[in-house]
């Protein structure tokens, strides 16, 4: 059991294992006053941290990456216990988080500006990137380590202090991230991890965004909550980076390699039980190859089984809650009632749900419209590439997408027509690297995590002019 406690006498709440019901974590139950106090402490630490040189920041973040890999087993067990995920997905989180830390460390000396020509004689004009103050980061439970690290590491490298609002579904994992930075000798109070019960989240988030020292907000989570966060940030004129829900399309053209496309579809739809913002939610397949593709995908799904309950953490893992599993069942039942064809048995027991392949999904079905966040591969048949683009774009979301085809010029042309922030040609929708920009369009949010793009999100651009000779000012 994880003890994510800041004080021995503090109120606590528990997070239970979604499978066994046993207590996985005992965490401090911050109230609004406690969260604001933590933000005050971060604000007080900011001037010294902002003045810290880039190589000192780099050394701390690099050390965090080393400590993370040393504690990989502890993080794996924490993620499994709190969210019921698979060991495979937990290890993916560890590798991804370590990569994000190393990439951010490498960028510590790249937080720069440029010299801009001035028309004034004797005037040197330049821009510099300056830290903004305190950044509020909010990370979800579905990739708890990777997204927890992503919410804070570039703000820290840019010279900001951070308040990380932990997810109530994985407070222990997020608390352990804070311990990594503490043990890497990050100065006290530069990073504050706030854990809380679900019931206080609305008031706590509103108070944190309103805090005068908080100058940037980043949130990864549902579009429903993202709209609330965006409104609150806008009310206080604070820029927000929002990475929200998705309905990622995987377009399969008639000349695609069916085996490769089926493998990519199975991975994208079923990894972590489909509980990823980039999960393949809508497989748009040319009707000329649809039968062969559907059979290939169904065979792959039937070969997979959700983890044996006696060996939690293996293979696919479970859904985060019984209510999530029940909702997935409802989406499938609605689609079947409206004419879709179920190609694999629908088998669920509690939070355990085996992969589902469902064919001939059409507009009007809930599964066509809604983000499922479950292990469902939903096939939509189309006549040609133009209809495939139309169907792929027929959603409020626009995070990730992918296109398969052997004619690379044509396939790339189709990819460029998809209204998504990230599109992979002949690859799965679930793909990211720390040096690459990541984010969505439309209801999937705005702003970009990853690489140099994130520097602009967590700094202010300041213009400086230096006059090297006297200026003549005439009224």
List the helices and strands and how they pair.
Layout: E1 2-4, E2 12-16, E3 23-28, H1 32-50, H2 54-70, H3 72-83, H4 87-106, E4 114-116, E5 123-131, E6 134-138, H5 144-150, H6 153-157, E7 161-165, H7 171-183, E8 191-194, H8 201-210, E9 214-220, H9 223-235, E10 240-243, E11 248-252, H10 258-270, E12 280-286, H11 290-303, H12 322-337, E13 341-342, E14 348-349, E15 352-353, E16 356-359, H13 366-369, E17 376-382, H14 385-392, E18 400-404, H15 408-417, E19 422-425, E20 445-446, H16 453-457, E21 459-467
Parallel strand pairs: 1-3, 6-7, 6-9, 7-8, 9-10, 11-12, 11-18, 12-17, 16-17, 18-19
Antiparallel strand pairs: 2-3, 4-5, 5-21, 10-20, 13-16, 14-15
Helix pairs in contact: 1-8, 2-4, 2-7, 3-4, 3-7, 4-5, 10-11
Task: Characterise this structure.
This protein has 16 helices and 21 strands. With 475 residues, it is of the alpha/beta class. The strands form five sheets. A seven-stranded mixed sheet has the order 13-16-17-12-11-18-19, sandwiched between helices. The chain has a six-stranded mixed sheet with strand order 8-7-6-9-10-20, with helices on both faces. Helix 15 (408-417) links the parallel strand 18 and strand 19. The longest helix is centred in the first third of the chain and has 20 residues, at 87-106. The radius of gyration is 24 Å and the shape is globular.
């Amino acid at each position: 059991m994880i003890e994510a406690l800041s004080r021995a006498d503090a109120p606590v709440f528990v997070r239970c294992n979604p499978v066994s019901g046993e207590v996985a974590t005992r965490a401090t139950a911050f109230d609004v006053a406690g969260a604001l106090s933590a933000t005050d402490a971060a604000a007080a630490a900011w001037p010294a941290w902002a003045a810290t040189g880039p190589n000192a920041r780099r050394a701390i973040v690099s050390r965090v990456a080393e400590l993370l890999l040393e504690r990989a087993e502890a993080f794996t067990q924490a993620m499994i216990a709190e969210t019921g995920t698979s060991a495979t997905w937990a290890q993916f989180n560890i590798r991804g988080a370590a990569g994000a830390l190393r990439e951010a460390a490498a960028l510590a000396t790249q937080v720069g500006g440029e010299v801009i020509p001035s028309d004034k004689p004797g005037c040197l004009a330049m821009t510099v990137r300056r830290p903004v103050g305190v950044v509020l980061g909010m990370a979800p439970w579905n990739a708890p380590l990777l997204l927890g690290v992503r919410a804070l590491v570039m703000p820290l490298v840019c010279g900001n202090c951070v308040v990380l609002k932990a997810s109530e579904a994985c407070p222990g994992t997020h608390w352990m991230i804070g311990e990594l930075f503490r043990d890497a000798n990050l100065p006290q109070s530069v990073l504050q991890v706030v854990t809380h019960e679900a019931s206080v989240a609305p008031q706590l988030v509103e108070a944190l965004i309103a805090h005068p020292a908080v100058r940037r907000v980043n949130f990864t989570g549902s579009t429903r909550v993202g709209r609330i966060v965006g409104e609150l940030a806008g009310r206080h004129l604070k820029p927000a980076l929002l990475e929200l829900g998705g309905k990622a399309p995987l377009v399969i053209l008639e000349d695609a390699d069916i085996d490769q496309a089926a493998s990519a579809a199975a991975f994208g739809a079923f990894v972590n039980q489909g509980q990823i913002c980039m999960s393949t939610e809508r497989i748009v397949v040319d009707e000329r190859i649809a039968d062969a593709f559907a059979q290939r995908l169904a065979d792959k799904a039937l070969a997979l089984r959700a983890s044996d309950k006696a060996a939690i953490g293996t293979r696919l893992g479970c859904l985060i809650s019984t209510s999530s599993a029940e909702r997935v069942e409802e989406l499938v039942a609605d689609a079947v009632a409206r004419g879709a064809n179920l190609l694999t048995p629908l088998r669920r027991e509690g939070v355990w749900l085996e992969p589902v392949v469902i064919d001939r999904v059409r507009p009007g079905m809930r599964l066509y419209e809604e983000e499922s966040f479950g292990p469902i591969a939903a096939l939509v048949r189309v006549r040609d590439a133009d209809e495939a683009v139309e169907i792929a774009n027929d959603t409020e979301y626009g995070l990730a997408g992918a296109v398969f085809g052997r004619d690379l010029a044509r396939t790339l042309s189709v990819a460029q027509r998809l209204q998504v922030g990230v599109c992979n040609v002949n690859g799965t929708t679930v793909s990211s690297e720390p040096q690459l920009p990541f984010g969505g369009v439309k209801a999937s949010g705005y702003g970009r995590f990853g690489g140099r793009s994130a520097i602009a999100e967590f700094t202010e651009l300041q213009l400086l002019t230096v006059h090297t000779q006297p200026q003549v000012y005439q009224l």
